[in-house]
């Protein structure tokens, strides 16, 4: 039995019961279920998976259950429809009386025209609101809150129109409640349109305005010429005899809000009151945030089609990011494009604090905070591109404030939907941040103080979480990793403002972190940052004649370039090391020993092996008289032996290479330097492969790979896999050799280690030819 036949059966049953057929969305869901898809596998273009699973599917099962007269679920719907089809074919269909056409009735209302032709997204929120409006739910005062422009009014009007349609038929359908009268009143002062801000001609700002709007929609109610108290009594009496949906839009601009809330609170149980507000109020809430990416992109495409604007997917993504998923900003942006503006111009206009979007969404809310700690917290939060830790935000904004006051101020910001709070961190939408940055710029004295405290906080933070050992695995970097983008913002500011001393301190704190991240994650981002930062420090140190720092930074930059390994980078490293060598007397003994060792490594990279040995001898000569801690001395000795072994290996002297490598291994073991232990053992395993001791090599390399994986060291993993591929080739296992070489190449590429990736690719080609 075909799926289309079964869908036809379902349509016949639903039509017989309701007088309507399945919607396109319902047919799409049913088709996938009948094709054998599980609930979590069902997709509908334009809707989030959660909406399909939690809203559309349950509604469809209930509709089918009402039509068929049996409980319907995803696992039995095919069986039930097939059974009905068999009954039709046998000539004994189950008789279902078609519903009588429900008489239409007059339902007084003054709802505004919908602001959109198609309601996009927010299906869960609409369902939630309709549930709260149903007679079976005890809530009689419901708030829909969220930042300006997020779609509060649109959502409520959409739900109200659904109630109106059900009320015309005098029959609740699929959970949509009915009312005898629907009253809408709005205190909105202005509307954001593609043409700019338009004023509301008659905003209903007072309780008396609301009373008059109610009276106009109730034929039997006349409140003219009576006292205020009598008006209240007359309205309550009239509303008690009819189910009423009362909508009070834009509560935050209503005068004497407490009086309005008191009136709404005391209304009879026949009334469901819905308020929209930018402030979170302690009633039964429906809380709106920006549209999820999928829904936001759907709205962008819908608006573009409506206004005949052509957008690429890249354009749509740029608009979603620029608008932060705020519906009113999306509609405004598409309108501006339709008016002839370029997308770049539209995005720039939207980010302006004095622009229409910013004024509409934020001006009235932020004006309430002027001169209060909450305003400082809002401005300070704009300094953090990523969610800010609470203690950092408070220390930057209002370090001397009373903790209880701060608690209230942060709650106020959340209540106005200006900030979000999650796991003791605070964040804001991109549009909100642009407005808050403009507010910060408009308060220069506070900005100066806040930025100084911002830099100081991250100086302390980086000192506490940085400065660890980049050459070992035991470092704990979680703190820096979590705060990295916020810390980068501080660094960018210091560089832009030429704050050399502060940045130098931060750089010294985080240098080991960026070094190790190049091994664990990728050299692309972290080491590009290292190069950018050392460019600034070298220029600044040279201008100031700070020769000690100049030498220090040159060596760091030279080591980064040496590790990156391309010929032009090695040449640049050579120049830096030579200049640093000329400045070595401005530094201490340890610096000079390390510099000589680094130059030796560079020579090895350039295959200048005789010069490399000379520099290693120079390292030993400098190391012998140096007064250094024993652990430091042993580390340097380990490195000298290690690189002596590498020179011998790369010149084909495998038996001789074992001697310095064994010395390096002994020193590393004595010093409990675990990373150096496994690096050295990797070389010894490579020698074993060359000399035919494959069993030893297998054991060492397998253990080394497991340890590298445990420590999430992708660099070590790549080198182990490269060695394992040569081992597998020696064992005659070409399939394993290809697999290991492929994994090594992939790791090298992901890490940005392009010379090593090219070597791995060459080896793969060699294996393929053999295969």
User: Which fold name corresponds to the CATH topology of the largest domain?
Assistant: Rossmann fold
Helical fraction: 55-70%
CATH architecture of the largest domain: 3-Layer(aba) Sandwich
Strand content: 5-15%
Overview of the molecule:
The chain has 771 residues and is mainly alpha-helical. The chain folds into 7 domains: 87 residues, no CATH class; 165 residues, Rossmann fold; 67 residues, no CATH class; 76 residues, Winged helix-like DNA-binding domain superfamily/Winged helix DNA-binding domain (Arc Repressor Mutant, subunit A), CATH 1.10.10.10; 101 residues, Alpha Horseshoe (Serine Threonine Protein Phosphatase 5, Tetratricopeptide repeat); 57 residues, no CATH class; 78 residues. Helices cover 64% and strands 6% of the residues. Strands 2-5-6-1-7 form a 5-stranded parallel beta sheet, sandwiched between helices. A 3-stranded antiparallel beta sheet has the order 8-10-9. A two-stranded antiparallel sheet has the order 3-4. A hairpin with a 2-residue loop joins strand 9 and strand 10. Helix 24 runs parallel beside helix 26 and helix 31 packs antiparallel against helix 32. The protein is globular, with a radius of gyration of 36 Å.
List the helices and strands and how they pair.
Elements: H1 3-18, H2 24-34, H3 49-68, H4 77-89, H5 123-133, E1 141-145, H6 152-168, E2 181-186, E3 190-193, E4 196-199, H7 207-217, H8 228-239, E5 244-249, H9 257-265, E6 271-277, E7 284-287, H10 293-306, H11 313-323, H12 327-338, H13 343-351, H14 356-367, H15 373-381, E8 388-389, H16 390-397, H17 403-415, E9 420-422, E10 425-427, H18 430-441, H19 444-465, H20 478-482, H21 484-496, H22 500-520, H23 523-544, H24 547-564, H25 567-582, H26 589-605, H27 609-623, H28 630-650, H29 654-670, H30 674-691, H31 694-710, H32 714-730, H33 734-751, H34 754-770
Parallel strand pairs: 1-6, 1-7, 2-5, 5-6
Antiparallel strand pairs: 3-4, 8-10, 9-10
Helix pairs in contact: 1-2, 1-3, 1-4, 2-3, 5-6, 7-8, 10-11, 10-12, 11-13, 12-13, 15-16, 15-17, 15-18, 16-19, 19-22, 22-23, 23-24, 24-25, 24-26, 25-26, 26-27, 26-28, 27-28, 28-29, 28-30, 29-30, 30-31, 30-32, 31-32, 32-33, 33-34
